[in-house]
Amino acid sequence: MKAEINIIDRILIVRLQGELDHHAVEDARNGIEQTITEGNHQKLVLSFQNIDFMDSSGLGLILGRYRTISQRGGEMALCEVGGNLRKIFELSGILKIIPVYETEAEACRALGRK
User: Fold this and answer.
1) Domain total for the chain?
2) What digits encode the pLDDT tens for the residues 85-96?
3) I want to staple 74 with a disulfide (CB 3.0 to 4.6 A). Which of 20, 63, 69, 90 is the partner?
4) Domain of 62: which CATH number?
5) Where are the alpha helices (DSSP H) in 1-114?
6) What is the mean pLDDT of residues 18-24?
7) Domain of 63?
8) What's the pLDDT tens digit per position in 70-88?
9) 63-71 long-range CB contacts below 8 Å, 24 or more apart?
C-alpha cells in the first residue's frame, strides 16, 4: 500500500493505492497524522481511486483522520470511491458523516469553498 501526499491550496490530498488492510494502515496513519500536524492542516481529501481492497482497519483509518481534522476545526472529504467500497462506507455509516465526491477536483472545490 502506498499513500501519495500532496498539498493544493492548503488542502491535504492523500491518494491511497493498493490494499488498505491491517498491515498497511499503521504506516498510512502515521504518515497522514505527521503531515497534518507538521503543516497544521484543517482540510483533508482521501482519494480511493486506486484501492484494490480494504478491510475494517481502513474504516478505522478514515474515522481516526476525521476525528483529528474535526478536532482542529477542519473538514474532510472522500473521493473516487468505487462500487464495493461505497457499499462498505454506506453500511458503516461513514457516508452520513463524511461527504463523498466523484472526483478529487470536486472534493477540493467543495472544501475550498468553506
Assistant:
1) 1
2) 999 999 999 999
3) 69
4) 3.30.750.24
5) 22-39, 56-71, 83-92, 94-97, 104-112
6) 89
7) 2-112
8) 999 999 999 999 988 999 9
9) 63/94, 64/29, 65/29, 65/32, 65/33, 65/36, 66/97, 66/98, 68/33, 68/36, 69/36, 69/41, 69/42, 69/43, 69/44
